[in-house]
Design a protein that fits this description.
single chain, 303 residues, binds fe (ii) ion, alpha/beta, two-stranded antiparallel ribbon, globular
């Protein structure tokens, strides 16, 4: 079924998260990925009362940068807090930007701070014109400060919506068209919303301007007390791969597909778990770097 006339992207790469000093993991993943994604807040350490980037992880990233491309993916900016975003996060991003060549950086369309208090989670923003105007202004500030592309990511929702003036896709379309920023499309987050709230993924994807998607996130999570949780702790489920296969032909500017896994999950499962999953995903996507095994090509042109 070819719903969209746009041709498939000729090339995209595999990427994964790297957030702990783990040279064995780094050496193991390098044959399968062209990019690694690092979270400045996660690799931060406190020194003399202020936050710095972990020096060993910085060294790992500099070593990796000789062979791979690096992406920054923040969790602590809180781009939608009414009273301001996190200056501490911006300092960390600046440090990373100064030390390592970054292809692009990204954050979540969310807030994680209220009245200066960190909620230790990300909550969805009200989809109102007032909120959109705040976020547009802040995206433009980011774009002026960091001359690399900036991407926003859709998050999964825990709480009921404030009465919206935009649909989910409509809000993202508004932000990309007003600022020129691009998107991370997190398919696992969409699945969480579908399971927890009956969210209609298909109509969301139909409405979203998929030309603005540069990166896709996939992950494997867990279920607890009847909820599907946005934790990156497992292999990617078949249902997520089905959505990936469905959406790729509709994303002409796709650069990377990122397998997200938490450092705690790497510790629990072991490095081979991640390396084997990347090998499986590379096979699924038919992405093969020099020296890795090839399998029959997958045809994404008719999903
Ligand atoms: Fe994310
Ligand atoms: Fe994600």
């Amino acid at each position: 079924m070819n719903r969209f006339a746009t041709p498939i992207s000729p090339a995209f790469s595999l990427c994964t998260t790297y957030e702990a000093h783990d040279p064995v993991l780094l050496d193991g993943i390098m044959p399968y990925v062209d990019f690694i994604e690092v979270t400045p807040d996660t690799i931060a350490v406190s020194r003399n009362g202020s936050a710095h980037l972990h020096p060993d992880i910085l060294d790992d990233l500099k070593r990796a940068a000789k062979q791979l491309k690096i992406i920054a993916h923040g969790v602590g900016l809180s781009i939608g807090s009414y009273d301001n975003w996190s200056a501490d996060y911006l300092d960390l991003l600046q440090m990373l930007y100064n030390e390592v060549p970054l292809e692009w950086h990204s954050e979540h369309l969310a807030y994680s701070c209220v009245d200066g208090q960190n909620l230790n989670t990300m909550l969805a923003l009200p989809r109102t014109r007032e909120m959109a105007a705040i976020v547009v202004e802040r995206i433009k500030t980011l774009q002026n400060r960091f001359p690399i592309p900036f991407l926003l990511e859709n998050i999964s929702r825990f709480l009921p919506d404030y009465p919206p003036e935009f649909t989910e896709a409509g809000m993202l379309n508004h932000l990309t068209s007003e600022t020129g920023c691009e998107l991370i499309l997190d398919l696992y987050n969409l699945e969480c919303d579908a399971f927890n709230h009956g969210f209609n993924i298909r109509s969301f994807l139909h409405e979203l301007d998929l030309n603005t998607v540069r990166e896709i996130h996939i992950a494997g999570g867990a279920f607890l007390n009847g909820f599907q949780l946005d934790v990156h702790s497992n292999k990617v489920a078949d249902s997520t791969l089905d959505w990936l296969e469905f959406v790729i032909p509709q994303v002409p500017n796709l650069r990377v597909v990122t397998y997200e896994i938490l450092p705690q999950a790497v510790k629990a499962h072991g490095q081979n778990f991640v390396i084997e999953e990347l090998a499986r995903l590379a096979d699924f996507l038919n992405i093969h770097k020099h020296g890795t095994t090839s399998v029959a090509a997958r045809d994404f042109s008719n999903a």
